[in-house]
Amino acid sequence: MAQTNADLILDKLDRGAAPVVRQAGFDHAVAALGSHLNNHQLMQLCDMDDRFVYICFDSDLNGSGQRAARRLSVQLRHAGAEVLCVELPRGHDPNSFFAAGADASDFRRLLESARP
C-alpha cells in the first residue's frame, strides 16, 4: 500500500508537474530540477525520523530521468530518508501521464509498485 504521509518529488518544475499531481489529490508534492537539491533542501526533506519519499521523474526514452532519480535517491538515503522510485509508462512525465487520461487511482497504483 502507498504511504499516505510521504513526500513526492517530481521532475521539471517548469512543466508544472507538481500542480497537476496536487490536483489529483497528492498534497505533499514538490518539484525539483533533476537531482539538484542543495544541502538545506535535503535536510528539510529528511528532518524527521521515518521520512518516506517517492521520486517520480520522467520516464525518458534516453534514460536521463531514471538516472537523475537514482542519483537523488542515493542523496536522500544518505540523508536518512526511505526512498522509492515511481516508474511512469515509457516516454511519460507526470503531466503527460495525467493528460493521457490517468487519474489519482492510476497514480496510486504506480506508487504502490514503486521500488527502491
State the end-to-end distance.
Answer: 15 Å
What number is the mean pLDDT? Answer: 81
* Number of strand elements: 4
**Helix amount:** 25-40%
Compute the number of structural domains. Answer: 1
Q: Describe it for me?
A:
With 116 residues, the protein is an alpha/beta fold. The protein has a single domain (7-112), classed as 3-Layer(aba) Sandwich (Dna Topoisomerase Vi A Subunit, Chain: A, domain 2). 38% of the residues lie in helices and 16% in strands. The chain has five helices and four strands, in the order βαβαβαβαα. Strand 1, helix 1 (17-23) and strand 2 (29-32) form a beta-alpha-beta unit. It is globular, with a radius of gyration of 13 Å. The chain starts with 6 loop residues before the first strand and ends with a helix.
What's the quick description here?
The protein has 116 residues and is of the alpha/beta class. The protein has helices at 17-23, 39-45, 64-78, 94-99, 104-112; strands at 7-11, 29-32, 52-56, 82-85.
Keywords:
116 residues, Dna Topoisomerase Vi A Subunit, Chain: A, domain 2, 5 helices, 16% strand
Write the layout of secondary structure elements.
Elements: E1 7-11, H1 17-23, E2 29-32, H2 39-45, E3 52-56, H3 64-78, E4 82-85, H4 94-99, H5 104-112
Parallel strand pairs: 1-2, 1-3, 3-4
